[in-house]
Write a structure and sequence with these properties.
With 359 residues, the chain is α+β, with helices and mostly antiparallel strands. It is built from twelve helices and ten strands.
Length: 359
């Protein structure tokens, strides 16, 4: 069955070839953090947990169960071959099966096995067995049916059973942890991801531009690059010499890296990686020609990324819009005044105010 996706203004228009390359969308962790500690307020830890979600599967799930929702509650992607999450603090594991029929069969069979094991224990015939063969918390909730609850697992799933899957997995975001784990009752606020002022200035933009310069030849031509807003006609002196395609990428939060000789766009916040070769193909003469598909610099970010999501960024503007405003002549003048003569201006205003008081 096809994986469901929710409607979102920042979601990609269908699953492009970029999203289909799960091995290529796995970012490296920018900073090694201790993910076994409990710090729901720590931005670096949240970003480090997000960096573990390397399977493209997560971005195909509804927003209620994407990688951000799991990472906010202390989960990281499992390191074994099972698709799902684990907690480095309480060692609980959850298997995520996004196929209602497969999940229902698993739940019902485990219930039956648990019931047989319990009956065997009562009769003295068998030793009790551990669920799923692991000492950690079960990867599935309440295997024995609670008579007071509706048995959703016997229901046929319509449209892939998305509603029933949400009904099954949303409680596990918290209850999947052991009862004593602090993550079972706490959640990191998504606004912790917001970009701090040190990431939204001209010097850091120049740093991103320097990383993008080596992959300039891999970028699509300007007509294939979909940007949120045209660049100002007048640019700061330090930026005027850069190719406008590099500027558009840098302003929207992208850095550049290389995989061998091939170029990548990378985001250090949402850990999205875009293989630029996916927008080209080789002709019979081994020459590259550009595909008709446009490279959308906003939609290629994860939906929750503060570079494109104003709710996560807070303040009413996503990160790219804040950066773009800093390139506007009027905004630049204010920034320059605050940065270069800010203290002098403050003292001048203070002197004027004191003069008024004396009079």
């Amino acid at each position: 069955m096809s994986s469901p996706s929710s409607v979102n203004p920042y979601s990609s228009p269908s699953l492009s070839r970029t999203h289909s390359q799960s091995k290529l969308t796995a970012p490296s962790t920018p900073t090694q953090r201790n993910l076994s500690s409990f710090a729901p307020w720590d931005r670096d830890q949240l970003i480090s947990r997000l960096s573990t979600f390397k399977n493209v599967f997560w971005s195909q799930l509804p927003d209620e169960l994407n990688e951000l929702e799991w990472a906010r509650r202390g989960w990281v992607e499992r390191k074994d071959t099972v698709k799902g999450v684990e907690c480095n603090l309480c060692k609980a594991k959850v298997e995520v099966l996004w196929d209602w029929e497969q999940l229902g069969e698993k739940i019902l069979s485990e219930r039956e096995a648990a019931q047989e094991a319990e009956e065997g224990h009562v009769n003295g015939d068998h030793e009790p067995s551990e669920t799923n063969g692991t000492s950690s918390k079960s990867v599935t909730p309440t295997l024995q049916k609670n008579p007071a609850e509706e048995d959703i697992y016997s229901k046929p799933g319509k449209d892939g059973g998305t509603d029933l899957l949400l009904q099954h997995y949303k409680p596990l975001l918290s209850s999947g942890h052991t009862s004593k784990c602090p993550w079972s009752t706490r959640t990191a606020d998504p606004t912790i991801l917001r970009l701090q002022p040190q990431f939204l200035n001209i010097p850091t933009l120049i740093t991103r531009l320097q990383s993008l310069t080596p992959i300039l030849s891999s970028l699509p031509p300007a007509e294939r690059l979909l940007t949120p807003k045209p660049l100002p006609i007048s640019l700061p002196a330090g930026l005027a010499d850069y190719d406008h395609r590099l500027l558009q990428c840098g302003v929207t939060g992208w850095s550049g890296s290389q995989l061998g000789t091939r170029g990548l766009l990378t985001c250090t916040t949402c850990h999205r990686r875009v293989g630029l070769w996916l927008f080209t193909e080789t002709t019979g003469d081994n020459e590259l020609r550009w595909e008709e598909e446009q490279l959308d610099l906003v939609r290629e970010h994860k939906r929750y990324c503060p570079w494109v999501n104003k709710e996560t960024q807070t303040g009413g503007m996503p990160g790219w819009e804040v950066m773009m405003s800093m390139l506007e002549p009027r905004k630049r003048k204010l920034v320059e005044e605050d940065g270069n003569g800010g203290k002098e201006s403050q003292f001048k205003r203070l002197r004027e105010m004191l003069k008024g008081i004396k009079k």
